[in-house]
């Protein structure tokens, strides 16, 4: 649930533990990861401003949107940006990530324009510089003491264009174990990367939120074109699936639905039972100790080999050793056929009963089943 | 312990009597092997007495749960309590800090729930000649209290070496350190003087530069395995199996002498709660895929390969067979009272009176 995510980010890190980290991942089938990211960002910002969260500042590393976009967005979401200098710093890796504009400005081709407020970062390939800059900006916001701040990385996908995975993973794990970081969250477009990238980042995160489309077709193009309006409607909705790693080592799985509106993304809870998880974990049981309904009915119908069935009738059980004399044959066969048909009509369950000894005549005085006659 | 050494065949090696009456940290096993404790008594029992000297244990981590740390902590603490030198490698920048989180052996008076034997003994007097078996069993493997950290003198006074794999450009330095560490424990026919333990945490962690060098890591593991086999030492390596490509994951699994994997379980899952009793206490599952078989061709048939990891009172690590309907005839009840005794598993001769 989106609220649980905000709460975990609000609670932040405990002493001696890694800071909680969140991966938001999406695919082209349901490309609303950025909306989730901005949603989490606005929630975190409002909590910071209200003083309710452990972190007192926020550093946004912006790769895919300009800093002014973020400030505008926060303003639209009702977060007070007038005092933004005190609690938020946006590291601008969007305007000039590789320093090309700067070089062109130096050689006089482009007019240079001063960066507006946000800190311009022009060397995205140097991950150490980025890390130290993040830490510098953060401690600039909250001071040097025990106060913590949060970090939001706009898009790790963009970061991975310039820097190999091991360096990004090292950056994230260093930030997580830093004393002053309260929480860290980032966005990833998982279908662009290898599986290894996604699993590595999930390994480093305490929460994984994935944005999935409602219809599970692998190829978003193949659909029922006749139902285009329904497709379009469904495109604006999706499933929001979150896995939390809890401290005791268990994983909490939560599912929600979301839909996109003009004002942003809205989450609604969904009640879907998911019984598939447990099947893979627990070893398969060979015995089936439970009876299904059908089996219970069958069991109730089987005629047991007692001659006194308790209903006044006396039935003959074919015990397999009677000589079939012609006149009794009709009788016996009639009986057996009767009992057979009876049993067949009862579902085909049959018990073949052979007496232990031929000497024993049926209904003898020592018949132990006599006392069962109720 | 010399009297209880099980001779499974008349061809077993005639060990010098002195070696068997030595330090409690080593137990004699069948076929001329010696066991050291893994730090978890339940796991020792399941593996047939402990971890044989010279074997490489590999633990497949689950990226969603830190249960492999529980295994590592108990393993390292057991080694330190028995004064066995330890080499620890981890991807964090300060591996020494981890030593402060190792658990301390639980003192018997805290251990009320596990030693209800104490109460039973009030009515039942154990005959004197059997007392030494109980005492020895205590020393070989300890119960660890995860809430109490290990006394500092255990790791400051003795030979504890820590390496960080974070900044290593390749695995050559790690391999050199392991080889030089293991050269202190050569194997010879004379008495075992001391044994060493190597613990490598998260070998393929993504934050290490060397994590993409899969062939190098494979040859490192191969070299380590052969060096450990010819030394009086045990090595344990944990690795996140989902981060290694599938073909290499298979190769690594084949290299292990003893292979276990840990798995996280979903929280508040009604299906699992119905299937398992005691679901509230379980934090994860431990699967045993392979058991070390050194000096023998006879395969080990385990009673149960899936154990549940429980933290009793959040302090003691307990591994139990799953309490569910019978699976392949293996025990559905907890280990101590299992009725189906397949004889191969009780190698060390558990004492059932």
From TrEMBL, chain A:
Locate the compositionally biased regions of type Polar residues. 334-344
What InterPro entries does this protein's entry cite?
Elp5
Give start-end ranges for the coiled-coil region(s). none
Question: Which GO biological process entries does UniProt record here?
Answer: tRNA wobble uridine modification
Major location (coarse):
cytoplasm
Q: Where does the record say this protein resides?
A: Cytoplasm; Nucleus
What is the protein's name according to its record? Elongator complex protein 5
Skewed-composition ranges (Acidic residues): 359-374
Q: Which GO terms describe its cellular component?
A: cytosol; elongator holoenzyme complex; nucleus
Q: Which family does it belong to?
A: Belongs to the ELP5 family.
> Could you tell me the keywords of this UniProt record?
Cytoplasm, Nucleus, tRNA processing
Pathway involvement?
tRNA modification; 5-methoxycarbonylmethyl-2-thiouridine-tRNA biosynthesis
A GO MF annotation of the entry reads:
tRNA binding
Traced from the root, the source organism's taxonomic lineage reads: Eukaryota, Viridiplantae, Streptophyta, Embryophyta, Tracheophyta
Q: Where is this region: Disordered?
A: 326-374
Indicate whether Cytoplasm appears among the record's keywords: yes
TrEMBL record, chain B:
What are the entry keywords?
Cytoplasm, Nucleus, tRNA processing
Compositionally biased intervals (Low complexity): 335-353
**GO CC terms, sorted:** cytoplasm; elongator holoenzyme complex; transcription elongation factor complex
Q: Where in the cell is it found?
A: Cytoplasm; Nucleus
Can you name this protein? Elongator complex protein 4
Protein family per UniProt = Belongs to the ELP4 family.
Phylogenetic placement of the source organism: Eukaryota, Viridiplantae, Streptophyta, Embryophyta, Tracheophyta
- Feature: compositional bias, Polar residues: 1-23
Reply yes or no: does the keyword Lyase apply: no
| Record-level GO BP terms | tRNA wobble uridine modification
Tell me the route in metabolism or biology where this protein functions.
tRNA modification; 5-methoxycarbonylmethyl-2-thiouridine-tRNA biosynthesis
Matching Gene3D superfamilies, A to Z?
Answer: P-loop containing nucleotide triphosphate hydrolases (3.40.50.300)
Major localization class: cytoplasm
Concerning InterPro entries, the annotation shows:
Elongator_complex_protein_4, P-loop_NTPase
Biased region (Basic and acidic residues) positions are 108-121
Organism source for this protein?
Answer: Linum tenue
Segments for region (Disordered): 1-24, 97-121, 333-353
């Amino acid at each position: 649930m989106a609220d649980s995510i905000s709460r975990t980010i609000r609670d932040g890190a405990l002493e001696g533990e890694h800071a909680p980290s969140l991966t938001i991942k999406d695919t082209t089938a349901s490309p609303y990861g950025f909306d989730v990211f901005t949603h989490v960002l606005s929630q975190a910002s409002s909590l910071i401003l209200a003083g309710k969260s452990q972190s007192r500042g926020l550093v946004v590393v912006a790769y895919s949107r300009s800093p002014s976009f973020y400030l505008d967005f926060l303003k639209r979401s009702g977060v007070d940006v007038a005092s933004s200098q005190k609690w938020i710093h946006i590291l601008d890796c969007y305007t000039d990530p590789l320093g090309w504009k700067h070089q062109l400005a130096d050689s006089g081709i482009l007019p240079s324009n001063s960066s507006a407020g946000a800190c311009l970062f022009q060397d995205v390939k140097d991950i150490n510089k980025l890390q130290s800059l993040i830490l510098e900006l953060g401690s600039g916001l909250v001071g040097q003491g025990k106060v913590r701040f949060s970090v939001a990385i706009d898009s790790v996908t963009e970061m991975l264009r310039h820097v190999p995975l091991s360096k990004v993973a090292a950056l994230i794990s260093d930030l997580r174990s830093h004393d002053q970081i309260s929480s860290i969250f980032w966005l990833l477009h998982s279908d662009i990367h290898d599986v290894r990238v996604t699993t590595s980042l999930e390994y480093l995160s305490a929460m994984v939120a994935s944005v999935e489309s409602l219809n599970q077709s692998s190829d978003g193009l193949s659909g029922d074109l006749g139902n285009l309006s329904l497709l379009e409607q469904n495109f604006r909705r999706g499933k929001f699936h979150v896995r939390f790693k809890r401290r005791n080592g268990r994983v909490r799985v939560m599912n929600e639905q979301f839909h996109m509106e003009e004002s942003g993304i809205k989450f609604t809870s969904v009640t879907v039972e998911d019984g598939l998880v447990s099947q893979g974990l627990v070893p398969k049981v060979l015995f089936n100790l439970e009876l299904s309904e059908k089996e219970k009915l069958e069991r109730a119908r089987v005629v047991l080999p007692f001659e006194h069935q308790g209903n006044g009738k006396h039935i003959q059980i074919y015990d397999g050793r009677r000589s079939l004399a012609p006149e009794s044959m009709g009788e016996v066969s009639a009986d057996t056929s009767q009992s057979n048909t009876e049993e067949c009509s009862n579902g085909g369950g049959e018990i073949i009963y052979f007496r232990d000894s031929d000497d024993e005549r049926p209904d003898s005085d020592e018949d132990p089943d006599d006392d069962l006659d109720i | 312990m010399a009297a209880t050494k099980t001779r499974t065949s008349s061809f077993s090696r005639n060990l010098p009597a002195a070696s068997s009456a030595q330090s409690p940290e080593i137990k004699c096993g069948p076929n001329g092997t010696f066991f050291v404790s893994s730090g978890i008594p339940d796991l020792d029992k399941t593996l047939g007495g402990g971890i044989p000297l010279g074997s490489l244990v590999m633990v497949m981590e689950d990226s969603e749960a830190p249960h492999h740390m529980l295994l590592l902590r108990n393993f390292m603490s057991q080694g330190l309590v028995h004064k066995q030198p330890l080499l620890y490698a981890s991807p964090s920048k300060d591996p020494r800090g981890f030593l402060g989180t190792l658990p301390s052996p639980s003192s018997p008076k805290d251990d009320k729930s596990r030693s209800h034997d104490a109460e039973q003994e009030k009515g039942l007097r154990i005959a004197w000649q059997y007392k030494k078996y109980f005492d020895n069993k205590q020393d070989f493997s300890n119960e660890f209290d995860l809430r109490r950290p290990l006394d500092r003198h255990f790791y400051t006074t003795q030979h504890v070496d820590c390496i960080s794999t974070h900044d290593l450009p390749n695995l050559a330095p790690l391999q050199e350190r392991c080889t030089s560490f293991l050269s202190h424990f050569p194997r010879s026919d004379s008495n075992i003087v001391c044994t060493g333990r190597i613990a490598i945490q998260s070998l393929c962690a993504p934050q290490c530069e060397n994590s993409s060098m899969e062939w190098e890591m494979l040859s490192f593991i191969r070299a380590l395995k052969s060096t450990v086999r010819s030394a009086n030492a045990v090595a344990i390596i944990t690795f996140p199996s989902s981060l290694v490509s599938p073909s290499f994951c298979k190769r690594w699994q084949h290299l292990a002498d003893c292979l276990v994997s840990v798995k996280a379980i979903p929280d508040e899952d009604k299906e699992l709660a119905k299937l398992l009793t005691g679901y509230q206490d379980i934090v994860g599952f431990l699967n045993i895929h392979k058991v070390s078989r050194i000096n023998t061709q006879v395969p080990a048939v385990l009673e149960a390969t899936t154990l549940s990891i429980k933290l009793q009172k959040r302090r003691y690590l307990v591994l139990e067979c799953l309490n569910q309907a019978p699976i392949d005839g293996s025990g559905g009840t907890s280990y101590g009272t299992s009725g189906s005794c397949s004889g191969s598993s009780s190698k060390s001769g558990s004492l059932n009176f």
